[in-house]
Amino acid sequence: MTLASGPLATDVERRAEALDTIAAILPIDRRDKLAELLTDADVETLRHLVNEGMGDNTLRALSSDLAYLEAWSLAATGAPLPWPASEALLLKFVAHHLWDPAKRESDPDHGMPAPVDRVLREGGSLRAAGPHAPDTVRRRLASWSTLTKWRGLDGAFPSPALKSAIRLAVRAVPRPRRRKSAKAVTGDVLAQLLAACGGDSLRDIRDRAILMVAFASGGRRRSEIASLRKEQLTVEAPVMGGEDLPLPSLSIHLGRTKNSGASQDEVVYLVGRPVDALNAWLAAAKIDSGSVFRAIDRWGNVSRRALDPKAVNDIVKRRARLAGLDAGDFSAHGLRSGYLTEAANRGIPLPEAMEQSRHRSIQQASSYYNSATRRSGRAARLL
Fold this sequence. Notes:
- The chain has helices at 7-20, 31-37, 40-51, 56-77, 87-97, 101-106, 114-122, 134-150, 160-172, 187-195, 202-216, 222-226, 273-284, 309-322, 333-345, 350-357, 362-376, and strands at residues 233-240, 246-255, 266-271, 294-296, 302-306.
- By secondary structure, the protein is mostly helical.
- The strands form two sheets. A three-stranded antiparallel beta sheet has the order 1-2-3. A two-stranded antiparallel ribbon has the order 4-5.
- β1 and β2 (246-255) form a beta hairpin.
- The chain is globular.
């Protein structure tokens, strides 16, 4: 995109350069657009959070939400976000994003005004049709609140009126909760995905390694796979398998994860085929340090930078299509749910599976086990 000219250009270019200094932690592919949307204070806040050691995923979410909030404020009020935000502005945000599609048919003024919607869509900030998901609104309000506190300010986020508005809006328009992946990538599905990348091209070798490592390491999140570095891998002593044959083994030091404490080093293990697949990719791509999984261009050149987390999701969907499956049924999160579902199907004790998946919530992890038990149990086979 073309940056503005004149004094504004200088400000935008300065912010773009400042964003570049944190791009290694915040992989920003819309630098110029963000530089236009964010204020100097916004950029300084993000840089401060980077220096404070906030988790990478949290920083990405905060920067994304901040950019959206700034774009919405400019479109809805003609001014950047005020700090702190008034209760009236917070209620306006809720009204613009949680609305009833049925009521909008008879009342065009209900929900987000058409001019605001148009500006956000033209700027690429708004893509989904219809109202936002309640969880998205809550997350953006939470990010707004967090950034307000980091500026040393108080906002109206604890306001009873705001909480009531969200509760009433959600109740007025119930939305069925959708899984992150409609179907779990269980062992049989994984076999089909692996067969769809059974060739010997660099892309096939990489995708096989991604699928096998993500699944076998406990269903790792796409961000954890994309950010995996060679330095996190440690070769372990072989494990004796069937017929007393030694199987290669390695440990993955995940460091701080979504569910771990700030100083806790999470470790998971790979044994057998996933180790072979990973070693095959590292050898083929000539990777001896840095990012493990990287982009491959059309000429077969391997990038030096880490794969974008979204690309992991795209790989799962692409291999599903090649396998003749409905890509809409599967996502990268299906590898995580699929690992626990497959563990339940094979009778692996829940605590043992959770040691590998690193789930902290027994309630969440056991839901996969309960589903597997109900499908195969006697209660589902009375006839």
